[in-house]
Amino acid sequence: MKNRTHLMFVLMMILVPGVGGQAQEASPALPVAAVQTSAVIEQTVPTLIEVVGTLQAVERAAIAAKVTGVVADVPVVLGSRVTKGDLLVKISAREIEAQLNQAQARFNQAGRNLSRERKLLKKHATTAETVKSMQDQYAGAQAAVQGARTMLSYATITAPFSGVITVKNVHAGDLATPGTVLIRMENDQKLQAVCAVPESLVLQIRPGQSLTVTIPTAGLIINGKVAEVAPSVDPVSRTAPVTIDLSYNERMRTGQFVRVKLPGQANASLFIPDGAVLPKGQMERVFVAADNKAHLRLVRTGMRQDGLTEIVAGLNPGEMVIFKNNEHLVDGQPIKIK
């Protein structure tokens, strides 16, 4: 009997409101949030493909000796800045000087002989054939003088253009021989990027086309203009070299690593305003406006450009996304579109 009375008391505690505890309170209604929306738009954008390359000077030269001789003077050092016509290397060329003197003496003698024979021809004391022979000797001696002077000029090596010395392989007292590279120089004010473009993309590149070049070590992103496109493809690498002219920047150096963005095939993508995407940890969220409520969606984003974010997955074209006053929204909250 006692157990039966206890059981009835427990049932009354459960069934009768207000007995044995307070009744559960109803959750408060969410406030209506005033928001701004934008439609999910579809745009056709080109796919960008990145290739790597190297910076090099447009003007560069490997300066070699053309005559044999002992180096008498090298007035430049590694890193020296020179202007066009400045002396780079002076080679002692006494043998060539002697050859020039001999050629000059023969030339003078040939001139005197020709003058004498012409006077004799006027007096009918010689023949026209003899005068013609003297003229040929005079022309040959003149050519020998010009040749010797040209060879002697090779002993003085000057800068072919304004630039900077990048390699110096010679010192005073060294023996210079024809073909031996003595100095390398380049114009570091005019640089270009050189990259190998896959054969599948090279037909889309044209001279004069603008391409984006990134130089990571210099922290630069530059728009360059295509200067040259190789007419043939390397059968081993299946690539073709392309050169891109760049505007000068003091942080650029020859040999630097560069990245070049090339246009690929155009694809259709979905875009929404940057403000509509709400990062949370490793997730990216978007609130979609539908039926006067904010509905939470998880999305996957792509590239960003001109204030728009590409949506790879999670949304459909034409849906309305909330991009203003969306930071504190919760899923299912009532909204009012401004």
Automatic annotation (TrEMBL):
Residues 61-178 form the CzcB-like barrel-sandwich hybrid domain. GO terms for cellular component: efflux pump complex. It holds the Pfam family Beta-barrel_RND_2. It comes from the Bacteria. InterPro entries: Beta-barrel_RND_2 (IPR058792), BSH_CzcB-like (IPR058647), RND_pump_MFP (IPR006143), YknX-like_C (IPR058637). The keyword Chloroplast does not apply. The keyword Signal applies. Residues 271-336 form the YknX-like C-terminal permuted SH3-like domain. Residues 195-264 form the CusB-like beta-barrel domain. GO terms for molecular function: efflux transmembrane transporter activity. Keywords: Signal. Belongs to the membrane fusion protein (MFP) (TC 8.A.1) family. This is Efflux RND transporter periplasmic adaptor subunit.
